[in-house]
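Title: Prediction job returns without error message
Component: structure pipeline
Severity: low
Priority: P3
Assignee: unassigned

Description:
Job completed but the reporter wants confirmation the result is attached to the right record. Sequence as submitted:
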Amino acid sequence: MTPPSERPSLSTGLPDLVAGLSVAGLLVPEAIAYASIAALPPQHGVIALLAGLICYGLVGRSRFAIVSATSSSAAVLAATTASLAGGDATHRLALAIGLVLLTGAFFLIAGVARMGGLSAFIAKPVLRGFTFGLALVIIIRQLPAIVGVGASHEDFFHYAFDLLAQFDRWHPAGVAMGLCALAVLMILKRWRRLPASLLLIVLGIAAQTIWQVDRHGVGLVGEIDVQFRAVGVPELTRGEWLRLGELAFAMVFVLYAESYGSVRGFALMHGDRIYPNRELYALGLSNLVSGLFGGLPVGAGYSGTSANEAAGARSRMAAWAAALVVLMVVFTLLPLLAHTPQPVLAAVVINAVSHTLRPGPLRIYFRWQRDRLVLVFAIAAVLLLGILDGLLVAVGASLLLTLRDLSRHRLSVLGRLGEGHDFVSTSTHPRARQIPGLMIIRPEAPLFFANADQILTRVRRAVANSTATRCVILSLEESPDLDGSSIEGIAELAAFLDTRGIRLLLARLHDPARAVLIRAHIPHLPVSALIHWSVDDAVSAALGTKA
């Protein structure tokens, strides 16, 4: 059910229409520009834009989200298809369609599995480092459209060196037009409601019409042939589908992290409710439809979503209005857009990704002295290994970082603070005193298969080194539930303690953890050892003072 704040009404209709008109002026040039990043004809970006606007409008819940092709997904698509297609343009398009379809399917599977917290598996430092490095790669790869010369190497540093080595062959007209276009966008940036990209495209077309800049070595976008017919599922080998499946898995992580970040940021800003699982369905449908019609991967990019919010959008009707304007452009103005000079389009791309190059979001990690190496590693992975391998390494680093944090087996020995009922770590609170005969231990991470054995082994080792322990109290407040490895580890700990005549009590168990331990019927761990809601209750039971 749509929340009242998001339902369109007469009072929201006009602002939404104005916002839709404004944001369409940004989206059409960006759609064409992102297709150039993906190394595909411009119509594939336009199809993706229409699929994203229409499908998200049907299923999505954010009133600000604008779902279209994004610079990151287009760059990943280009790297993927280039590595697998071997120079065959037809095969490259088939691979691109297959990747987009698999991305949509994975989104829908994640939605069915209610994996709305998927973005949490990519650590923010890794994502920011990846997008920072990706922005540098995208910008450097737009320079040939401005300077008029290409580069033969693929990696970032050799690519930049090749361009600089050909400085004497740069086309002055293209360089001048590119610099002027960037200057215009920077000047217009202060007026957020102006469709700066569209105005720049109009100026570029006017320059071509008046001065025929293509005669001076400046390239043009060329024909844009949008055909609204389904292309279907491409015929690929089993090995190619498997490889695309690996890359689609990574694409889902990046697209959802970027999309959910945009949706969540503006929802929090305006007090709107967030629907993470619904976003997965919306992105899944949008990518499936985009793939079926030959479009690029789509997500809720920051530039389009922020432009929609800045233009005064009140409901999802703004996205519908934008879709209507885009359709009008497709049927009436596409022949004119074919005359857009490539340096102007490159300036649109550079301006769209420039917000990710702000040092502020990166500097905070150095000030906090947290995750600095992870951040630098993610940037270096993209620059040194390329977009494709850098993406996989960055996603892998996120998962390893998550597992590292969860698998840490740090334990705290607890003691009573003063004469009250609070039990705190004796290492951080020196005044806390341990209870004679009791060993109270708290794992500082949830117990699960990757850390249960190490944590419980350390508990057994601590008991073995103590001669006065009569009872061990294990506080499991950090474990909302227990998996099979954890249950087996607790059973082994209970048996170990029983052979030494030591009692085991579990404190602060969550209901699911208590329920599964009761079902397990662990010897030497009766139900009476699982009922203590606090450490103080367990201490009273161990000392025989509990009422």
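Comment from assignee: result matches the submitted record. The CA atoms of residues 335 and 384 lie 40 Å apart.
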